[in-house]
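Q: Structure tokens for this one, please.
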Amino acid sequence: DMETEYGTPQEYMERGELVPDEVVNEIVREYLSDLDGWILDGYPRNLAQAEYLADLGGVDVVVHLDVAREELIDRLTGRRECSECGTTYHVDFNPPAESGVCDECGGDLVQRDDDKPETVETRLEEYHEQTEPVVGLYRADAPEADFAAVDGEQSLDDVFDDVRAAVERRVEDS
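A: Here is the predicted structure, written as tokens:
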């Protein structure tokens, strides 16, 4: 039993660790086996996972959101979460009416441990080491219509439109 052998995904996340490839791959395999179409976000995060996904049948389109490192740090460290109801805010982009207080329930807004500057730096370094090679793999190996680099610093609507256009191009070409 995989859960007994490896533990649960939540146990890893609560310790601030990445869930091992074996666990994530099995979750992905089970989940995708019953679907006609799907969108993955944050997977594959390394070359071993990309190879596993290729063995499952691969992907039709890869969308990569390009965002500068400094912007990512600002976005991630500015996130706040209500300690009572879990509603999420951002100090710049989606602030509450009253600083530090949840609009929904009046609870205290806190910065999650994984959004603290030192943790964000570690996550970005991990991205650089583990995930950038995956982006390079898809950028080099996928036909041009299958890889779309989207400017992630545009407005939310423009990012959405570019992502939708990339997927629609693939559907139209099929």
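A few notes: The mean pLDDT is 88. The first strand starts at residue 62 and ends at 66.
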